[in-house]
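Need the bound structure for zinc ion, inputs here:
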Amino acid sequence: MNSLLPPDFLSDARQSAGLKAINRHHGLAEEAYEAIFAQLMALKIAPGSRITVDNLARELNVSQTPIREALGRLEGEGLVVKTHLIGYSAAPQIARRRFDELYDLRLQLEPEAAQRAARAMDAQRLAVLRDVAGVMSRRGGGDEHYRYSSFARFDAVFHDRILEFAGNGLIRETLAHQHTHFHIFRLMFHSRVTEEALDEHEALLQAFEAGDGKAAKRAMRDHIERSRDRLLPAFE
Ligand SMILES: [Zn+2]
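Answer from helper R.:
Posting the output first, comments after.
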């Protein structure tokens, strides 16, 4: 029966079957990644605790391959540590000193970057930032662990895009490399952390919309200082 079909069709069909298998694999690895990321961010997997590939595979109902791929990616993001002969564990919580250093770094770089971004702002860039901020403010249903981890991810994107628009690639890379948002958000799992940040982002967006560099600088400084104050109780 197949012989009645034109040869191109056959090879297309075969190709698309192959593609589906690949997409399915990527899909599973992506889903496993999102699920483990959410558990790590919401402290469902406690900092420092062992992570067993077998258990996760069973819990998420997938084979070990996507789990290992997801864990490798999380290792690159500093959320998972792999120890020779022992295996994977959740990265320990950042220490107070590291926390202070991260916020010091952000305060030295981001307010200035916000000022530059405001001066380089245009309608298209503003729309990008409004889109990202909009995703964060959508509450809706769904699992609260997922919502929290997705907020952390989009906050990272929001700040990264501002650094991109500020125009210094090295500053952007430096902050991206620290994965500051993942480590900071993982200190605490609390809705206050996300709700207050939304208003602060709005103040930033208004400064950008007005093209007001000084207001953007002030709004970014305020946002980072308040974010630090919200998370400080994690060390008490
Ligand atoms: Zn933010």
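Comments: The longest helix spans residues 7-41. The mean pLDDT is 86.
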